[in-house]
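Re: beginner question about structure tokens

> Can someone show what the tokenized structure looks like for a real chain? I only ever see the sequence side.

Sure, here's an example I had lying around. Input first:
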Amino acid sequence: MGVSGSGKTTVAQLFAEATGAVFYEGDDFHPPENIARLHAGIPLTDADRKPWLAGLRQIIDQALVKNELSVLTCSALKAAYREALAAGDSRVKFVHLAGPPEVIAGRLKNRRDHFMSPALLASQFAILEPPADALTFSCLLSPEQIVAQLIQVLAIAG
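And the corresponding structure tokens:
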């Protein structure tokens, strides 16, 4: 979890490769109207996110039923979003990639082929409710360093 440009997809893909986890890119499950809004620089409302979060929760449910080690990317900026995703299941863990706004803004300016408008970064930081119970890593670390530390913290054999 984290704001756009914090490295969620990169870290999640590396984690999946290192551990054999199944990788789910949360952005792939946005309905077309959400993508159009984000591309136009219009922040999503809680109502816009609700069905998307419910769909992500279904993915989590399916992974839990299969006892599948998996990783799902999602900004999950508000506590209410994380509560909807976890649904009270202690097996669901959150990893927060945090970093300075100016560094992340620089990343977004250089990013290509993503629908999220860099103009939305300030609104994401404005609604971010940093989680007290997540594993938090600085996005200033390399993705490889984050994955290595995450595997160690979670005691997962790679």
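Each token stands for a local structural state, so reading them left to right follows the chain. The helical segments are 8-19, 32-39, 46-65, 79-86, 101-110, 121-127, 143-154.
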